[in-house]
Amino acid sequence: MEIQPQEPQEIHTNEGFEKDSPSSGPISINHPKEVKLSDLDKDPEERENWGNQCDFFLSALGYAVGLGNVWRFPMLAYQYGGGAFLIPYTFMLIFVGLPLFFMELALGQYSGAGPTRLFGRLAPAFKGLGFGMMGATFYVAIYYNVIIAWAIYYLAGSLNFFQDLPWNSCTSDACFDNGTLNNAQNNSVSAPQDYFNVGLLGMDWDTSFCNYGSIRWLLVLCLFFAWFIVGGSLIKGVQSSGKVVYFTALFPFVVLFILFVRGIFLPGALEGIYFYVNPDFSQLANVQIWQAAATQIFYSLGPAFGGLITLSSYNRFDNNCHRDAVLIAFCNCGTSVFAGFVVFSILGFMAHIKNLAIKDVVAGGPSLAFVVFPEAVSAMAGSHFWALLFFVMLITLGLDSMFTLVETLTTAAMDHFKSLRPYKGHTVAATCLVGFFCGIPMCFPGGIHLFTLLDSTCASWNIILFALLEVILIAWVYGFNNFFNNIQEMGMRMPNVVRLYWTACWTVITPLILLAILIGQWVQFKPVEGVNMDKSAYVFPGFFQGMGVLIACSTVILLPLLTVRQFLKRKYANKPVGRAMFKTTPKWKPIKSIGNSFSI
Length: 600
Hints:
- By secondary structure, the chain is mostly helical.
- The chain has one domain (32-582): Hydantoin permease, CATH 1.10.4160.
- Helix content is 61%, strand content 2%.
- Strands 2-1-3 form a three-stranded mixed beta sheet. Strands 4-5 form a two-stranded antiparallel sheet.
- Strand 4 and strand 5 form a beta hairpin.
């Protein structure tokens, strides 16, 4: 049974201003220059707007299309039967990813609030949901920018056109060059793998959490430069990042197409593509392929991190986010599939020159982007050009996601500390500085293990739990009919069959799938492990396994803590508790864009 809101709200042209405003008359939205800061109501707050609709669309597209499309998706297809992986991936897109994607865009656009404000207004008991999302976003931002730092390091190495690419020759005695072993050990690695292990990370045979090694100052410099780019692009908020994404969001598509045209003419490319499109349907009986597909949807589209809500909160009130959600979601899926053709043409080429089976080319982890591709471009004519192109693409893919992650964190800070709003640049700089210092521990030889630990734990079952609670809150606590009314208030109309699809997903299908995935992840829990230099598995010690669990739990614990805080706060203020904790507050109301806005 749906719980109805306490105070249904109506949209007024002067909504968002104080009733007791000191101004002499009502303020018209047709004269934004007359608006004074003292005239603005605290809720909803005045927010920036995107310069135009294209700014938002490309920002959301860049957030959705990231490293996961050209790195993680092809790896999962590689592991789970090639084209067979497309079946569970498409299923999860339609019944999990797309419903959550549209839901979050609509929520942010309607309320004009970030996730830390929005959920508490919908139901005080869910106040901690947005803060949990911020915790996961912060962890991801820390290690995600380390990947960009790696790409910058490789990019710098490919800029010297007068020397051979640095990963073409060995940097230690633990590798072989051009098929010739430098030592007699069976655990020797190729020159590109050796460059990643030793040249980039500085690893040794006994590198571990207990033998962490010395700091890699060049890697620290690359990390600083990565954060500097992010901070410089966000220094003026969405007005500056909205312009940067015209390059960072579109350039990867150009490079992917160029790499595809180059890749299909390489020897062995057709065998690689055949491996990709020839599905192993027996894999569909494996429960893990369905869990992997669902996890990939979250890495790809990015729901339950708060980023989508933040981006859409800067939209004009009557923007057609329904159309945007469908277009972006399917563009994201199409990009993943297309990237698969690019990657598998390269894998086929590598299998051909190494005389290996395609299934034996890639070991896993970051080796696809930082070992296999560098090795492949080294074997091409004009190798420096292809290396330059590839690593610039990796950097731009990562930056698009980083822009949204950091914007989400700064928006949350300014939502709660209104005194920070005139100092947007300072807030962005402080956030980037904190992220930089938190990333320095991954600039040690043993930092690759910390990277693996964060990657495996900070956005795992906790993100699935956040998504499950979010969809339950909207569909069953707030009420899906009320949510549809909000969508109609924003001027979006949809056929009955489309409304039926959203209703079925939000109320039944999506929650059940999320619940099944969550239980599956708990039941099939495995200790986190990394890879040693000798290619053997390194199962992390118990202390660090516990630290990984605490990382995930540190984001979830915010939910019950803030629920208790809201209960006590309302009780001491003589406000109703109990059922009132699951009803909307008077602050839940639509926001109207003021000043410079765009037409659709």
